[in-house]
Amino acid sequence: MDLVDAMLHALSISFAMTWEILWALILGFTLSAAVEAVVSKEQMSRLLPDDSPRTLGLASLLGAASSSCSYAAVALARSLFNKGANFTAAMTFEIASTNLVIELGIILVILMGWQFAAAEFIGGPIMIVVLALLFRWFLKQPRVAVARRRAEKGLPGSMEGHAAMDMSVREGTLLQKIVSPQGFTAISHLFVMNWAAVLRDVVLGLLIAGALAAWVPESFWKVFFLTDQPQLALLWGPLVGPIVSVVSFVCSIGNVPLAAVLWNSGISFGGVISFIFADLVILPILSIKRRYYGTKMTVFLFATFYAAMALAGLLVELLFGALGLIPHERNALVAEPSLSLNYTTVLNLVFLALAGVLLVRAWRTGGFAMLAMMDGAAAPTSRAEVAHHH
């Protein structure tokens, strides 16, 4: 196979995976935009004053409702911390807004099966509990104070405008907020912003997944993941999963196509889960956290996040293994291109039409101009500020 054929083979697999999950991506981001349109970020920091179980549970719910890419989640967590939120609660919010969200579960079901989606939503709270305990044992208040002073300097990271923007509708019942003209506009703007936030990672993840599936021989993965030593592989998978994620540079939903390739190639069930959790410790994210909180805090965050995600992956593996829920077949969807008139094609056409409606609404109401403005030094943070700018 020459270079051109190899490139085309990898791209064809990437396209096939994209086609399989396209409708689910659009559905997930539409639902997330609708939730964000009725959930205000204004009072979040006041709701997260400490690291009590109740507060961390609330932080998890707020994070899941404020679905974000990893970059926006990290920026929003700093914003909450600056406004007085407890540091542990802010980090819990950060984890939930990337790992406990609707679209991630949908894509996991399509590509890998419901067991992986269930493991993600069970493992996420386990990771949060482990991280909270590690923070309580090892995170000293002087270090938090230093991190807060650093965070208050406002050094730029990534997706700052997306994190600062609050498009939520304040008046009316839940249904009225969603179906009102203001709600429709807010949903369209949030839909565009959510796509802008994750598009790079989704595309990169699909391209890398296609390349790995097409180019890396199965024999390499079998040796790397210790598939001939099942007991050792059970421990090795959760430990090595985050490391693979760190060097892949892919975060958010872009991790899932890669996870599908790794599962088919022999990584353990718990290794898949810890790999997906690790979107918050990839190298670009760590660089941003260093600017936000300083080098010492970033090293501490990497060590504690890594320990929490590896342990959560292992515990999920043991739990699902005891319940007999780990799939025996490694048949995650890493498809070859084949377009036909089936339910996937119909769903893609329907949801592409929905995306078109939302894009037109966003265009006509200044959503794209707002997106461009968010790249500036001072992004507007509310509907009123947006209206004033326009």
Feature tags:
single chain, 390 residues, mainly alpha, 74% helix, disordered C terminus
How would you sum up this structure, described in words?
The protein is an all-alpha fold and 390 residues long. The chain has one domain. The chain is built from 19 helices and no strands. The chain has helices at residues 3-38, 53-65, 70-82, 87-99, 102-111, 114-138, 141-151, 160-164, 174-179, 181-215, 218-224, 230-248, 255-265, 269-277, 283-293, 295-322, 343-364, 367-373, 383-389. The chain is globular and about 55 Å long.
Short note summarizing the structure:
By secondary structure, this protein is mainly alpha-helical.
Query: Separation of termini?
Result: 55 Å
Number of domains: 1
Overall shape: globular
Q: Quick one: how many beta strands?
A: 0
Task: Indicate the percent of residues in helices.
Answer: over 70%
Helix and strand composition category: mainly alpha
- Mean of the pLDDT scores? 81
| Quaternary | single chain
Order of helices and strands: HHHHHHHHHHHHHHHHHHH
Largest beta-sheet details: none
Calculate Rg over CA atoms: 21 Å
Strand composition percent: under 5%
| Low-pLDDT windows of residues | 376-390
Number of helices: 19
Question: Can you lay out the helices and strands and say which pair or pack?
Answer:
Blueprint: H1 3-38, H2 53-65, H3 70-82, H4 87-99, H5 102-111, H6 114-138, H7 141-151, H8 160-164, H9 174-179, H10 181-215, H11 218-224, H12 230-248, H13 255-265, H14 269-277, H15 283-293, H16 295-322, H17 343-364, H18 367-373, H19 383-389
Helix pairs in contact: 1-5, 1-10, 1-17, 2-4, 3-4, 3-15, 4-6, 5-6, 6-14, 6-16, 10-13, 10-17, 10-18, 12-14, 12-16, 13-14, 14-16, 15-16
